[in-house]
Design brief:
Blueprint: E1 2-5, E2 16-17, E3 22-25, H1 27-30, H2 38-41, E4 42-48, H3 51-59, E5 68-71, H4 86-94, E6 102-105, E7 117-122, E8 139-143, E9 148-151, H5 155-164, H6 176-183
Parallel strand pairs: 4-5, 5-6, 6-7
Antiparallel strand pairs: 1-3, 2-9, 3-7, 4-8, 8-9
Helix pairs in contact: 3-4
């Protein structure tokens, strides 16, 4: 795994990156054979608000080669619990898309996951990070060597989308997970609760 710390940098091609704080890229995506996207390193997004939605789209052949699969609301607060998205990589491989599509998610992948993915995108969608306002067909730029994960919309459009964004209803409404969904730290801070017990 390769960690992108403070992904955005001066002189970047687009106005806004998807991971203002940090994200983690798989070793496959980081390798010499890494992901090659059309259009000079950009590809259209297919955006899903859960792993289940992405899996359903794969089953219905709605994801095509050279798509960037964006999966959000699977981070510490959104899931809640920073869910493992391993099943998605298995389905992608079974569909023969594991070398022609990338996954970008605010959830996590384990060492068992194979293929090009970028995970733990921070800030997560549940707290209004840029990944929360990505839309289908937005062009996503993935540039591993230069640590770029960008979305090709203007600064003004990004500001407009973020201003219009509203939090989703919580996925859980009872039990200890409600506390976690409200208070969990970001992936950068370990995704735990900010409590001293």
């Amino acid at each position: 795994m390769r960690v992108f710390k403070k992904v955005k940098r001066e002189g970047q091609k687009y106005e806004k990156c998807l991971a203002d704080k940090r994200c983690v890229a798989s070793s496959w995506a980081s390798g010499a054979a890494g992901l090659t996207l059309p259009g000079g390193g950009t590809a259209p997004a297919r955006v899903f608000d859960s792993e289940a939605e992405a899996l359903d789209a794969l089953k219905r052949n709605m994801i095509k080669p050279n798509n960037v699969i964006v999966v959000r609301y699977e981070g510490p607060r959104g899931a809640p619990g920073l869910r493992e998205l391993l099943l998605l990589t298995y389905y992608l491989r079974a569909a023969g898309l594991n070398e022609s599509c990338a996954i970008v998610a605010d959830g996590k992948f384990s060492g068992f996951a194979k293929g090009p993915f970028i995970c733990q995108v921070t800030p997560e969608a549940a707290i209004g990070g840029p990944i929360a306002v990505a839309k289908d067909d937005d062009l996503i730029e993935i540039d591993i060597p230069n640590k770029r994960l960008n979305i090709n919309i203007s600064k003004e459009e990004m500001a407009k989308r973020l201003a219009e964004w509203k939090p989703k209803a919580p996925k859980v409404t009872g039990g200890i997970l409600t506390l976690y969904a409200r208070m969990a730290n970001s992936c950068v801070a370990g995704a735990g609760l900010p409590l001293k017990i």
